[in-house]
């Protein structure tokens, strides 16, 4: 359709300017070249690449509607100006089905239902100072550690993006990264008369990789990080997070962990290990089975503000903990059994025990079941079911997710 429209436009342009066409000779080719001039690679770019992804999904809940469909599509435009310099621009569009005519921009609850934005826009340059480092400036997805404090959650229709400056250097294998994130919205400050101003925090920090080699216990891989908050002179307090991710393997048993502490003295922990279960392979149709055991714990004064943290599935598919697991005296225990009934299907069964007195969640239990496959060699199909139960009736629910996606 696009080719036909361009061709018709070119023919129209040629017919409306017959004298000019006669003088130039190659009328159709000239018109087509003019129309497509904006689609060519900018002068100076040595390469240009377009990629993208699209998805549609539906949420069914036993306590709500059976149809809650949303959709999202992204286009990524990658320019490599030369071997040292490049840029990336991403366009994001998303909507909730059924809102095309009404609440076109904002629904009654304030959530954006239909929107388009420049999702990422940044450029980078390596060895710009002659020291071998790489500097990145602009807006992009960014995650520190496992994302429990600062992270981009791709599950969201509009994933969290950060605007700032990043500097990376290999530094003898340490892979140091320093960053400055500008004016992240944390809360609204009332100023009277029903008006508010957004309270904005600047975040700055550094992270690097380090490996401790031991003879008997194998290698331990550390990625320490320091995150400092600055309130720009508003009413929020300055603060900081200090933490590290750790992973290793002992006796053939792989494990990973993350620990962090906050300026007020609160701390948080996450630990998981995966055990290969060869016995599962004896079950007809089941291959590559493994059992993952995990726990998380956060003190009652450890809190990650705003929507900076990754939240989806960190405590089950029902996403009861909307700010993630590291907030306000939260403890979780979980077990996950992976299975593959065939070469084209993969699945996971999970059990969660969640405790969060602040949200009046005590001994909340959740069972999750999810399977996925690829259709026609490109279309990803994913199904997820969750059942929650607790003493609080509002949290007794069943949900089913159906997601169809495509990378292109």
Q: What do these coordinates show?
A:
Residues 1-25 and 102-110 have low confidence and may be disordered. This protein has an 18-stranded antiparallel barrel. The longest helix has 15 residues, at 2-16. Helix 1 crosses helix 3. It has helices at residues 2-16, 18-24, 27-35; strands spanning 47-61, 69-80, 85-96, 114-126, 134-140, 162-169, 176-192, 195-207, 210-213, 219-230, 239-250, 253-262, 267-276, 287-298, 331-342, 345-356, 361-375, 379-389, 397-407. Helices cover 8% and strands 53% of the residues. The relative contact order is 0.09. Among the domains are: 1-40, no CATH class; 141-214 and 223-244, no CATH class. Strand 9 (210-213) and strand 10 (219-230) form a beta hairpin. It has 408 residues and is mostly beta strands.
SSE series: HHHEEEEEEEEEEEEEEEEEEE
| Total helical segments | 3
Radius of gyration: 26 Å
Measured between the Cα atoms of the first and last residue, the distance is 19 Å
Strand content: over 45%
The count of β-strands is 19
**Tertiary shape:** globular
Please state the average pLDDT score.
80
Q: Low-confidence runs (pLDDT<50, min 5 residues)? A: 1-25, 102-110
Q: What fraction, in percent, of the residue positions are helical?
A: under 10%
Largest sheet: 18 strands, antiparallel, barrel
Structural class: mainly beta
